[in-house]
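Sat 14:20. Reprocessing the chain from the morning session after the first attempt stalled halfway. Input below, unchanged.
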Amino acid sequence: MLRLEYKPYTLNFKFIAGTSRGTMKTREVWFLRVGDTSSLGASGIGEVAPLHGLSADSIDEIPRRLRELVSEIVDHKTPTSAAQVYALAKTLAFQFPAIRMGLEMAFLDLMHQGMRQWFNSPFLQNKMQIKTNGLVWMGDEIFMRDQIHEKVALGFDCVKLKIGALDFEKELKLVSYLRKISSKIIIRLDANGAFEPQNALDKLNQLSEFNIHSIEQPIQKGQWNAMNKLCQSSKIPIALDEELIGLEQDVEKKALLDRIKPAYIILKPSLLGGFMESIQWINWAEDRNIGWWVTSALESNIGLNAISQFVAQYPNLSHQGLGTGALYHNNFASKASLTDLKMTYTETDLDQLPFLN
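Finished this time. Tokens:
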């Protein structure tokens, strides 16, 4: 039988993090620890990391559901395979994708003796690194220019700009500024649904002058016909992000890809319901010649470590959105960290979470 403990934790940003949906100063997560009642040995750690304004979870209900799970989980046996992990997590937290992710993490860690090694790949032997994009957060022009300078000076060859909150002409100037600095740098944009369908194509055409790799979610989710027209007409390849969140039925997910026909999909496991859901999206995308990459949902370094290990199973990776570990004043040391602009795994003696001991 299983036992569950959980603790809330507030992550404090080093700056005011801006998106087109508003700003964040703090980030609420919950850490799970799962063990077997028949053993005093290893336990598995997971992170529940929903995002206000994005998650399909009823975030205010997460503490209640975690309290209920403490008693409910004792009726279940420790899973012994990945298939059992995915099935049990979905049974226990069907309506809470972020909790499903945390449970998957904890069960997988428990299966691997609590070593914080969720997925086996060359990443764990430090035989590979994961390329990351440098992220430019929204803010005023000076703040964003300073970030652009910082990312270029650090040597990032792929930079992602969040746009949609400033006057569009100012954002055009910022994108132009980055392109003038480097003609070779890969530029990704993320609009977070900020454009209106009636003017989105005009804005995309103006942005296309700067050789943009892709743009995430130019218009709000749920407008499948309008998004399909943009995908067919835009000179910039379009990636779906928020559009994927909240879909639970396989038939609906596949219909989304077939109707909209995006160039790329962006996967955030904490918002999609865990690793198995992400694997399904990857399989369906690859069947349709749709590209993909994974980004964090601003997890702590604990969740970021697990997501990095998950991504590292796949060969020929493009730049992933995983370089977010330095966002917080009070993050945790981690074996997976950004080294030379790539996610790297190092065998160091880290990361028992002290507030769970």
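Residues 122 and 207 are 38 Å apart (CA to CA).
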